[in-house]
Structures are given as structure tokens and as C-alpha cells.
Amino acid sequence: MTSWHLEALATAAPVPYWLDRAQAPEAAARLVGAQDADLLIIGAGFTGLWAAIQALEDDPSRDVAVLEGDRVGWGATGRNGGFCEASLTHGEANALSKSMGVGINQQTFHLFPKMREVDVLMRANAALHAIVYEAHPELAFARMNGGKPVLSKKRQPDGYAERCRLLAKHGFPCPADRLSGAARDDILDAIAVCRTALLITEGKATRLGPARLRDSRGLPMNIWF
After folding, report:
1. What are 139-156's pLDDT values in tens digits?
2. d(CA 27, CA 16)
3. I need a labelling partner for 204 at 20 to 30 A (CA). Which of 7, 76, 137, 159 fits?
4. To the nearest 10°, the Cα dihedral for 138, 143, 146, 149?
5. pLDDT of residue 190
6. Residue 102: band (very low, low, confident or very high) from pLDDT cuts 50, 70, 90
7. pLDDT tens column, 29-71
8. Are 143 and 225 in contact (CB under 8 A)?
9. For the chain, which residues make up each domain, given as ranges?
10. 3-class DSSP assignment, residue 153
């Protein structure tokens, strides 16, 4: 967590938002002593409350009791923790990027950690600069397509079929459409950049950007296809 997040959360209290409002209802009195019930439900979150409602809808004559260790909505049901600080994941980066003109989708955002790993590795070992190349599958497909971009979306049936056809035409048929941990369009992308790797070894690949283009750390700034 960054210093920005720590500062923003410095005055936060561990209280569900819904219970930290002036309109929040008073907590019910604590149960003291024994009580009989036809059905006892432990926990007054969404699951417990809906179970109680369903039980009464099924049989209105039932005596249903719901017990909660603190108060209704105190736990995960009231905290909505998955969304209370979206900027810890994709939201902040997307907002910052939009302020400069273009947003960042979640797929791109979640690539950043892996990109940083490669960046650190490349900075630490200059010998890798001569053997590690950056490639992009859509540029690879465009080359296979006679220099024209493949406009159909790869996750749609027609886009998937068109890319399979291009790979097969250039000697790289797709052997599988399912692999553990990978979507089928990811498989096509991996095969496409394998063809780029072959072109590089044969001295036939095309470079995007001047040969001597470097970033501030001295890393090559080229994409090959």
C-alpha cells in the first residue's frame, strides 16, 4: 500500500459504512435468558436474513429467531469490502490515466506486475538485451494478413477462426483450444509470437521503432513482428 493510501485511510474507522450514518437504526437489545423457537438461525448477514425470510414465506406460522454476535450487517454483509477501495486495484490507475486522456482496462492493469518483473530483470543483466525481444501478437497477425490488421475481435467466433486460419496458413496450426490457466485466444497469441521468434532467428522479422531507440534506463524500445 502506498503512502497516498495510508494517508487517505488514516482517519478511517473499522465500522461498516451503513452503520456509520445518522440514519442507522439503533441496535436491538441483547438476548438475555432462554427463548424457544421453531428455527434458530445464527448470523444476521445476507445469508441468515434471507434464510429467515424464506422460512417464514414457506410457513408463516413458524417462530423464527435470528441470533447475531454483534448487530445486523456488522460483518462482511455490511462492509462490502470487495468494493470499498477499488483504487487499491484498478480504479486509481484508470482514473489517473483517464486524466491524461486514455483509460486503462483491467487486463492491461493486471499485466503491469509481470512487465515490471521483466523490466527489473532486463536492467540487471545487460546481456539479455541481445536475446530478449518484445513482440505483439496483433502485429504478428497483421504481418500474416499481408500487412493489414485483423479487425475482428479474437474472442468472437469469427475473429478466432480468422486467426486460426492465418496461423495454419503460415505453418503454425493451433493444436488445442483449451489449456489450463489460459483462455483460447491467449493460446493463439502465444503461437503468433512463436512465429515472430522464428522470424527473428531467421533474420526476417520487422522492427517497430529505430534500432537505437532506448528508454531512460537504456532498454531497447522496439516491438518485433
Report:
1. 999 999 999 999 999 989
2. 14
3. 159
4. 20
5. 95
6. confident
7. 888 888 899 999 999 888 999 999 999 999 999 999 999 888 8
8. yes
9. 17-79, 137-207
10. coil
* DSSP strand pairing (39-42 vs 64-67): parallel
Amino acid (one-letter) located at 143? R
Distance (Å, whole) CA 43 – CA 68: 5
Distance of CA 81 to the CA centre of its chain: 17
* 223-224 vs 39-42, strand pairing mode: unpaired
Largest CA distance in the chain: 85
Q: What is the DSSP string of 18-38?
A: GGSSTTPPPPPPPP-S----S
Which residues are bridge partners to 40 per DSSP?
A: 65
Please tell me the distance from the alpha carbon of residue 138 to that of residue 220, in angstroms, as a whole number.
20
| The pLDDT value given to residue 82 | 54
| The amino acid at 109 | F
Close Cβ partners of 159 (under 8 Å, ≥ 6 residues apart): 150, 152, 153
Tallying the residues shown for the chain, one arrives at 225
β-pair partners for 224:
135, 207
Which contacts qualify for 160-164: CB closer than 8 Å, 24 or more apart?
Answer: 160/184, 160/185, 160/188, 163/188, 163/192, 164/188
205 in Cβ contact with 212 (< 8 Å): no
